[in-house]
Amino acid sequence: MARTRLYRGGRLEAEDFPLDDISEHLKDPGTVIWLDLTDPDRADYDRVQEEFGLHRLAIEDASSPRERPKLSHYAKHVFFNAYAIDFDAAAGDLDVHEVSAFATERALITAHAADFDIDAVVERWDATAELAGHGVAYLAHGLLDVVVDGQFDAVQELDEALEALEDRLFDESPQAIRQVQQRSFRLRKSLGRMRKVVLPMRELVNGLTRAREHLVDDVMLPYYHDLYDHVLRVTEFTESLRDFTATILESNLAVQGNRQNSIMKKVTSWAAIIAVPTAVTGYYGQNLPFPGYEKHYGFLTSAVLIVLLSVGLYVTFKRKDWL
To answer: What is the DSSP letter of 61?
Structure first.
């Protein structure tokens, strides 16, 4: 599937025209073309490479799955790769959606899988149509702005999930303990994936702003600086969550250790209480004469000793908060 747009003089003039018409439209120096490819195959890439003169290495990067976020400069264009992300708060999982883009002097070609929401990018372009006169820089900014905003939303949702997890650390029910352990490791895994796609965005946006191809003019430059500021906020937020996650894991281990110590104190205390009647009955069970041997008061004495010593130990341990 392919989508196309034609801008002339800062105005949207045509949409969804055939790919065969692109060469004719590009003959007019005042036109800017957007071409979008959804789930492109090798034939699609070959056609685009021939039409726009794209570099072979850029085509390889675009067609390779899970390429790292990057910005590459070539003779006739630049290539960049980024990831939009969605966070599933219920499951604690992170979904990543790769999008690649080739930016020439008067054309932006995007390629992505069907799970990437390109409609959100189109809506962003339409909402800032007053900047359409700035050509490819305007199109690339709208694309990256949507990606970065989605990353910021995902980081915020992950932060809220971690805070909710922190509130459950002191729930002592066995089911809650198991759920906290499972969710903490799942959120940590999602954070690790998030860092891999978020941190390289600084180099990408900064490199695009300072590209030798001068795609970004003076009017669009403040918008790219604002975009870079958003990227810094996302990366700093992500790094702070890394420390937050480590703190939660350490706190969870500390709580488990304290809980285990409390259990050991209780078990030891009950063992001491049980040892008292065992010792008394063992003493009175000797086959030797002793005070009260084969007498009724001897049985009463042993029973009283068991009760008094057991109750005394229980009260003592209770006062020390061992029970």
So the answer is: H
